[in-house]
Design goal:
Layout lengths: L4 E2 L2 H4 L3 E6 L2 E8 L4 E5 L13 H4 L4 E5 L16 H14 L5 E6 L1 H12 L4 E7 L12 H6 L8 H10 L7 H13 L16 E8 L4 H10 L3 E10 L2 H4 L1 H12 L15
Parallel strand pairs: 4-5, 4-6, 6-7, 7-8, 8-9
Antiparallel strand pairs: 1-2, 2-3, 3-5
């Protein structure tokens, strides 16, 4: 399917372009050559938050970093922001660019977006990487609820506010609107049950910090339910694992995506 793409001077400095996806001027960046790998950012995040991953991954893959609506340089849309409609936006983004299948790696909110793409359109996803994100609210650490209860547009991390105000085509005053939509997203059910993971056909890497966005018990349940999965827990890191130990995270992703995986010397029948 042909894509109508426009570029801007600012976008070009970051290998960026804008493509019309169902009437939404969707910004994305593309770097490298090889099989397609789509990086899905977290909530309130622009493409810049994958700057520690993109150059290294682009040595092997053609890396796409789309910004979903209400994030970065992509405008907000009327109504709620949900994991489901962000997944549908990602599917249509792939279709518009003619990407028939790709590896998907999502961090935080992006992990659930990637998971839903894999559930709704299995043939689009070759391999899936879920970076530091619970599947259900019950799988979040105990401190998550109180932390989110105290969050507001006025109390949002300043760096995220500044990025939004610098980049958003909706203008700086629109930040509270987007924040409230995302806060609703983060404090209500994800719309996915752990049992749903049994229907994921793509090989999946579940990666988190040892002080990350899911309890170790939840990570184990996710691992057991996914039909073909690997688990990586990065020591000494938090939900910000992609920033805190990027080279280790990148190495784990590259090893997982490799065509030839390292053979298991002492594999027991039955796997995980």
């Amino acid at each position: 399917m042909d894509a109508t793409v426009t570029t801007s001077a600012e976008a070009l400095t970051r290998n960026g372009a804008t493509v019309d996806v169902d009437g939404v001027a969707t910004y994305y960046e593309v770097t490298g050559t090889g099989d397609p790998l789509i990086l899905l950012h977290g909530g309130l995040c622009p493409a810049e938050t994958f700057d520690a991953q993109t150059p290294e991954l682009a040595e092997t893959y053609r890396v796409y970093v789309p910004e979903r609506y209400g994030h970065g340089r992509t405008p907000d849309v009327d109504g709620a922001i949900t994991y489901e409609n962000m997944a549908q936006h990602t599917i249509r983004f792939m279709e518009t660019l003619g990407i028939e299948s790709a590896h998907l790696a999502g961090w935080s909110d992006g992990a659930l977006v990637g998971l839903l793409v894999a559930l709704r359109r299995p043939k689009l996803v070759r391999k899936l990487v879920l970076l530091s994100q619970y599947v259900t609210l019950e799988g979040a650490p105990a401190a998550y609820g109180p932390f989110m209860a105290a969050m507001s547009a006025d109390a949002a991390p300043p760096e995220f506010v500044e990025m939004y105000r610098a980049l958003s085509p909706d203008g700086p005053d629109h930040f509270p609107v987007v924040f409230d939509k995302l806060h609703d997203l983060w404090t209500t059910a994800t719309g996915i049950d752990v049992a749903d993971l049994a229907h994921v056909t793509a090989p999946t890497l579940v990666l988190d910090g040892d002080d990350g966005a899911m309890t170790l018990e939840h990570a184990a349940a996710v691992l057991r339910t996914l039909p073909d999965a690997q688990l990586a827990i990065v020591p000494g890191t938090s939900h910000g694992v992609v920033f805190e130990k990027p080279h280790l995270v990148n190495r784990l992703i590259l090893d997982f995506l490799a065509v030839e995986e390292v053979p298991k010397l002492f594999a027991l029948e039955g796997g995980h």
